[in-house]
Design a protein that fits this description.
It comes from Streptomyces capitiformicae. InterPro entries: DUF7824. Among the domains are: about 140 residues, no CATH class; about 140 residues; about 90 residues, no CATH class; about 190 residues, no CATH class. About 60% of the residues lie in helices and about 0% in strands. It contains 47 helices and 4 strands. Strands 1-2 form a two-stranded antiparallel sheet. A hairpin with a 7-residue loop joins strand 1 and strand 2. Helix 34 runs antiparallel to helix 35.
């Protein structure tokens, strides 16, 4: 009767009745209730948002916690994901658990505290159990983060952060744990609040009052900074360290730590450590050896501000005490190789000023002369004169451009021969969305084995399907999701296991050639149509194999191989799938005219409708590049294509005819769901040999990612560059946007694409540079990011290629410096671009003139822009080779 009453109360959502019923139950009685509670939970799980589930879940949450007798089982029940949004109040849970033994409660609370943050275990529940158990407070991420939020709720209840901290009985343990939690400073509202109502001020005040140990706080701050982390997190702990206002003795005790921070910490932290050590150095307390160690660490860094500050410090120290010149000047020479021209010039000036202070001048001069080889040509000649080293005899050396090898397509391996191997490969493709070759092999393997022995295939796929996102959904939700999208290989596996209705699989019969859609719809709908067709045929009329499985890793299909497959279909009396056959036509390799003609003859001899269609397609003129019809301008550059008549013919079903529609930059829907890079890779293999068709449809997404930071990925760029066929304006603009992308990994992908295009002889460097100049002028890309990307490309040995791009990019930006245009300040980052250009010219030895360069070189002052412009002008005049 107790079990029936409890289940009835749970179904009614009566949490109060649940508390009364479980009070005083024996362990045996509680265990007896669990099977029915678990069955009820299983019943509610498929539709957690139904009124019945919403009503029952809080009471079920409390009842299950009360009736579980093991600590691990209770922790698992309380953190169940299905009840996360409708939990019982913490006070109720503490009530139903409060009659257990303290050791048992301590076990439960520590298990809860060890759960990840995503489990959303309420802090009030954990804190209440700690009080009941009388145990040590957990110092896990979940508990400490919850405690910090609990303390910080001063805004909507009496008290302040410092007042709440003073009332915390385990203050020292929990504050110490704050320093051990990853990125807690970046995730919290640590620095917000007024006066004493923020964490930094509160912890500082409590340290001054003695409630927190000062040495422990300082050590914890320094140790946290030594561990590294994000900029936001380091900013919090550096702010706390600064607020603690270390005494000279406290700073002196940690000289080794400051040296380590100068070497490896984030720039803001390294700058603080540098300022601390600079004070000791100017007071003569650091010593020459440690100053040299510090300088070597700083000069190894790339931040110009830190390096310049260190050179200034060394100048001051040597001016006060020249005796350390013999040890410090060779360290200064490490800055000769810095990428910033001003830094190199300052370092050389410092050496010039104090070289006479070296007692054993010959040995030091020889060491400095060896380091001078890293200087730019103009400064190198000056250094050689200073050190008394004769310039090497001029030798005509031909600069050799280093480019990556041209990627070659590989032949696809056949589909796995056993269902066990196929299931393993399907699982890998579904889990990691592997390359197109693996996807196509898995798809063809599913079709082949479904035709041979569907039952064996279904059995082998069982464990794979059990891990998929649709495994626990009911039929209504599964069909709804798959009606929206086939989700690649997912719909085929779901169809095999009969987890989706045939009506959902049936190929869509929309008027794809006329209806509206997004800019990607031509590619997306064609891909989706094929996936739905494959899934539908597997359930209704299985195919022996697919016609469109590529021959090569690029997605291309040999015409003779397609003819052979059609011949086998004819022999088996199999009706090809319309979408699969259309995809096969698009994939036919067209770079060998003789092979196409022979295949066309063989196709006609088949005597089938598909054979005649294939022969007609093989003899159709298919331009390698679409006709460009539009090009938009500021603030983004996009291109559009004219109609592709060959794709609008009756050879293709409606879903594929959309590929031939004109593409205009701003037509159709501006936003859509086709933003994933995993889809884009498949699109490129759908139309092998025609990368412009894909690039034109991705261009808008990539431009938005750069200008509006939408988060689209650029990892498709190397594949675009490697694709067979001729590239044009669309691919070039995709690379241009990638070079100005926000994330470093995206810029690196664009650099890879740039180098591959150059290696294939398909890089229009002048056009790319002109596009970059226009985009930078519009403010659509940041020159600093472009400079970093071009520098990376040049550093691989492609200095000539990098210069060719910059030579076309810079004139437009330099022209803005014309006094008649009344431009007050140059474009930010222009000096960095000039620095990269100078490096490229010096390395490749080209010469010539750059339009409008004098507008920058003849400006007053010694800014980075002026310095690098003069360096570039000198390098172009001194070059020994014609511009490539």
């Amino acid at each position: 009767m107790t079990s029936e009453s409890l289940i009835k109360a749970v179904r009614a959502g009566s949490t109060g009745d649940v508390v009364i019923l479980v009070d005083g139950m024996t362990d045996a009685e509680r265990r007896a209730c669990m099977p029915e509670l678990k069955e009820l939970r299983k019943t509610l799980r498929p539709d957690p948002w139904s009124p019945q589930a919403q009503r029952a879940y809080p009471a079920l949450h409390a009842a299950g916690a009360a009736c579980q007798t093991g600590a691990a089982a209770v922790a698992t029940w309380l953190t169940g994901s299905d009840m996360r949004w409708r939990q019982a109040p913490s006070s109720v849970l503490i009530d139903v658990l409060g009659d257990r033994a303290p050791d048992w409660l301590a076990d439960v609370v520590h298990r809860l505290a060890e759960r990840p943050l995503s489990s959303d275990v309420p802090y009030e529940l954990m804190a209440g159990l700690v009080r009941l158990a009388g145990c040590a407070v957990p110092t896990t991420e979940a508990y400490v983060w919850g405690w910090m939020q609990h303390i910080g709720r001063a805004g909507w209840r009496p008290g302040t952060i410092i007042g709440n901290l003073r009332a915390e009985p385990q203050l020292r343990e929990l504050v110490a744990a704050l320093f051990e939690i990853e990125e807690i400073g970046a995730r919290s509202d640590w620095r917000y609040g007024e006066e004493r109502n923020n964490w930094t001020d509160a912890l500082t005040q409590l340290t001054e009052e003695g409630l927190l140990d000062r040495k422990a706080m300082v050590d914890a701050c320094v140790a946290r900074l030594l561990r590294g982390g994000s900029t936001a997190d380091n900013k919090v702990f550096l702010g706390l360290l600064t607020a603690l206002d270390l005494t000279p003795d406290e700073r002196r005790e940690r000289v080794t730590d400051w040296l380590a921070l100068c070497s490896d910490a984030l720039p803001t932290v390294a700058s603080h450590a540098q300022s601390v050590l600079a004070g000791f150095a100017l007071d003569g307390e650091l010593g020459t050896h440690r100053l040299a160690e510090m300088s070597g660490a700083v000069f190894f860094r790339t931040e110009r501000k830190l390096v310049r500050s260190q050179l200034v410090l060394l100048g001051k120290v040597l001016k006060r005490d020249p005796s350390g010149a013999a040890e410090l000047l060779p360290v200064v020479a490490q800055a000769f190789g810095h990428e910033d021209t001003e830094v190199r010039e300052r370092a050389l000036k410092l050496v010039e000023r104090h070289l006479g202070d070296v007692a054993d001048g010959n040995a030091t001069r020889a060491e400095l002369a060896d380091a001078a080889i890293r200087l730019s040509p103009g400064l190198r000649a000056r250094a050689q004169a200073l050190f008394g080293v004769a310039a090497p005899e001029h030798v005509d050396e031909v600069y050799e451009e280093l480019l990556p090898p041209v990627p070659l397509p590989t032949r696809l391996a056949p589909a796995p021969t056993t269902v066990a191997e196929l299931a393993e490969e399907v699982g890998a493709v579904l889990a990691s969305d592997e390359e197109v070759g693996a996807f196509e092999r898995a798809l063809d393997g599913l079709v082949r084995h479904a035709h041979r022995d569907r039952e064996a295939l279904v059995e082998a796929l069982g464990p794979v399907a059990a891990r998929r996102w649709w495994a626990d959904l009911d039929a209504r939700h599964t069909n709804r999701y798959f009606r929206e999208s086939p989700y690649g290989l997912e719909i085929v596996v779901a169809a095999l296991l009969e987890r989706v209705e045939t009506s959902t699989l049936r190929p869509a019969r929309n008027k794809a050639g006329q209806s509206a859609g997004c800019v990607h719809s031509g590619l997306a709908w064609a891909f989706d149509a094929r996936m739905r067709e494959v899934a539908y045929r597997i359930r209704t009329e299985p195919l022996p194999f697919l016609l469109a499985t590529p021959t090569w890793s690029t997605g291309s299909l040999e015409a003779a191989e397609l003819v052979a497959r059609l011949d086998e279909y004819r022999r088996l009396n199999v009706q090809p799938g319309a979408a699969d056959f259309a995809q096969a036509l698009l994939r036919v390799r067209r770079d060998d005219g003789a092979a196409l003609a022979a295949a066309a003859v063989a196709a006609r001899e088949l005597g089938t409708a598909e054979g005649h269609r294939l022969a007609e397609w093989l003899m159709t003129d298919v331009p390698s590049l679409p006709h460009r019809c539009t090009r938009t301008d500021e603030p983004r550059i996009l291109v559009g294509f004219g109609e592709l008549p060959e794709l609008r013919s009756e050879l293709f079903p409606a879903a594929f005819q959309r590929l031939g529609r004109p593409l205009t930059p701003y037509e159709d829907h501006w936003y859509c769901r086709h933003w994933g890079d995993e889809e884009w890779r498949h699109w490129l293999a759908m139309v092998p040999g025609r990368p412009e068709l894909v690039a034109g449809r991705l261009l808008r997404d990539l431009s938005q990612a750069v200008i509006e930071d939408t988060g689209a990925e650029f990892s498709c760029l190397p594949s675009l560059a490697e694709a067979e066929g001729e590239t044009g304006e669309a691919v070039r603009l995709c690379v241009a946007y990638g070079l100005g992308a926000q994330r470093p990994e995206d810029r690196l992908a664009a650099v890879d694409a740039l180098l591959v295009l150059a290696a294939r002889g398909q890089l229009d460097a002048e056009g790319l540079g002109a596009d970059l100049g226009a985009l930078a002028d519009f403010g659509s890309v940041k020159p600093l990011r472009v400079a970093e990307a071009i520098r990376t490309a040049a550093a691989t040995g492609a200095y000539g290629t990098a210069w060719a791009v910059l030579r076309a990019m810079l004139p437009r930006l330099l022209a803005e410096l014309d006094g008649e245009r009344k431009v007050k300040t140059p474009i930010r980052g222009l000096g960095d671009l000039l620095a990269v250009a100078s490096e490229c010219v010096e390395r490749s030895g080209v010469h010539g003139e750059l339009p409008h360069l004098d507008l920058a070189a003849d400006r007053r002052g010694m800014s980075r822009l002026v310095t690098e412009a003069r360096r570039l002008r000198t390098a172009l005049a001194a070059g020994n080779q014609p511009v490539a």
